[in-house]
Amino acid sequence: MNISPNHPPPKIQIPVLYEDANCLVFNKPSGLLVVPTDKNEDHTLEHIVNRQQKEKLFPAHRLDRDTSGVILFAKGKDNQEKLMQFFKDKKVNKTYIAFVHGRVSEPRGKIRIPVKDFHQRKFARHLPAQSALTHYEVKDYHKDFTVVKVMPITGRTNQIRIHFTKIGHPLVGEDKYAFRRDFALRFKRTALHALRLEWPQMNGEGMIKVEAPLAQDMADFLERQKN
Fold first, then answer.
1. How many CB atoms neighbour CB 11 within 10 A?
2. pTM listed for this prediction
3. Which end of the chain is more exposed for a tag (fewer CB within 10 A), N or C?
4. Helix or strand (DSSP H, E) at 110
5. Pairing relation of β-strands 57-59 and 23-28?
6. What are the tens digits of pLDDT across the range 114-141?
7. Three-class SS of residue 162?
8. 20 given a catalytic annotation
9. 143-183 pLDDT, tens per residue?
10. What gap in Å lies between CA 154 and CA 156, rounded to an integer?
């Protein structure tokens, strides 16, 4: 992919966490769409990393605009199809860190609540809910919130956000599935970070595991709660 003199590389630089012949893994900042919506936005993670790396890359999965952390891109369409099939076949292990309101009483558990899986909100009311399963483990308790490690087994749209809202512990910063005014804590986004991704090697010889350090804004939030 050649960059025209009229289109210089973007000022934002997305950190690379891992690279091999088939893929690249980036540390996504919050606030970026992964791919354009029907509004055809051009400031997306896909657009930025293609220009940054000067090659054609394709996302193997999605993260919400607000979510930070590990995201996997394929080198070429063939690799994208193979990696996406790993996700469909539940061969990919995903681990997130979330801050949720209140004190989660059970130290670990499973949330099994159907979720409507959609990307275009205007069609949501016509789609049936689909089975969804999320595992979680409490990592730490603070005065008004709990830090949880989250392992979604299925990959429904906004699954983690919906599931924790349904059990009465919406994510800190949540404003779509809960009312911010109902909670004392404030955060500029939904406090969700993709910590780790693990998937099979293309040659079948083991697994690849990549981690991203906790996003700075979430780390700063934790530090403020200690004071």
1. 6
2. 0.90
3. C
4. strand 108-112
5. unpaired
6. 998 655 444 455 678 899 999 999 999 9
7. helix
8. no
9. 999 999 999 999 999 999 999 999 999 999 999 999 988 89
10. 6
User: Which residue of the set 64, 117, 144, 182 is catalytic?
Assistant: 64
Closest CA to 133 of 155, 148, 116, 117: 155
- Dump the DSSP string for 173-186: T--SSS-GGG-S--
Task: Compute the Cα dihedral for 28, 153, 203, 60 and give only its sign.
Answer: negative
Query: In DSSP terms, which residues pair with 135 in a beta bridge?
Result: 110, 151
Alpha helical stretches, state H, the chain = 45-53, 77-88, 159-166, 216-226
pLDDT value at residue 116: 82
Distance CA 50, CA 58 (A): 9
Please identify which residue in the block is written with the tokens 């891109």: 73
Token digits for 89? Answer: 């076949």
Give the pair of three-digit tokens for residue 115: 């979720």
Q: Which token pair is 4?
A: 């025209």
What does the block give as tokens for 2? Answer: 């050649």
d(CA 42, CA 35): 9
Query: Which pair of tokens denotes residue 188?
Result: 């500029």
- Cα–Cα distance between 24 and 18 in angstroms, integer? 6
Region at 204 (left for phi over 0; alpha for psi -120 to 50; beta for the rest): left
Whether residue 100 contacts residue 163, with contact meaning beta carbons closer than 8 Å, is answered with no
